[in-house]
Write a structure and sequence with these properties.
Blueprint lengths: L6 H21 L9 H8 L3 H8 L2 H25 L5 H18 L1 H8 L15 H18 L5 H20 L5 H19 L5
Helix pairs in contact: 1-2, 2-3, 4-5, 4-7, 5-8, 5-9, 7-8, 8-9
């Protein structure tokens, strides 16, 4: 019998999803610096007090929004990894390529990257991005450990964090296509991937 989500938990998730959707719509129309919490709350159909009670501050909400949007990208990354469990190097390459392509095609990411760092959400990925890095690293570490249980946890986490930081760097300052970037990264990290995941090539 399928377990049911308790009502308070389901209601809170619905509230957060509604607020994130309202914020995403607003950010696609104007810069983050021009958007007030009151406007986000109104667009979501709740009070400003409800928004602040859930997130605490405007910066905390912005970080949560970036992480919420990142969930979709890491879902795609997780799928790419699991399709290549027999080839760790290919899995890492596919994961990075998938992330870069998905992020590059996303309207909100394009808006974020067009910012000069003073008016939008970009600082929450770069200069103020540690919560995002920590969250993404934990998520990717879990994916790696699930796919390769033999991997020593410290090395799995080190690989995950390196990939997260590289992915953020390449998304914010792309130099080549996702395919080329993924291939070069796989070549660079290949020996460590083989060692960390216990499958020397």
């Amino acid at each position: 019998m399928e377990a049911r989500t308790p009502y308070p938990q389901a209601a809170r998730q619905l509230l957060r999803d509604t607020l994130f959707a309202a914020a995403r719509d607003e950010v696609q129309r104007r810069a983050w610096s021009e958007i007030t919490m009151a406007e986000i709350a109104a667009a979501a159909g709740v009070s400003r007090q409800t928004l602040y009670k859930e997130f605490g501050s405007r910066d905390e909400f912005a970080q949560a929004l970036v992480i919420h949007e990142g969930e979709r990208f890491l879902d795609a990354v997780d799928t790419a990894v699991r399709e290549h469990l027999d080839d760790p190097r290919a899995a890492v390459g596919a994961a990075l390529e998938t992330f870069l392509r998905t992020a590059g095609e996303d309207p909100l990411v394009r808006i974020l990257l067009s910012d000069d760092g003073t008016a939008g959400l970009l600082p929450f990925v770069t200069t103020q991005g540690m919560p995002v890095v920590q969250w993404a690293t934990a998520r990717l570490t879990t994916t790696i450990e699930d796919g390769w249980p033999q991997a020593p946890p410290p090395k799995a986490r080190l690989l995950a964090e390196a990939l997260v930081r590289l992915a953020i760097s390449y998304v914010t300052a792309p130099a080549d296509s996702p395919e080329t970037t993924a291939a070069h990264t796989g070549e660079l990290l290949g020996p460590f991937i083989d060692e960390a995941l216990g499958q020397a090539g």
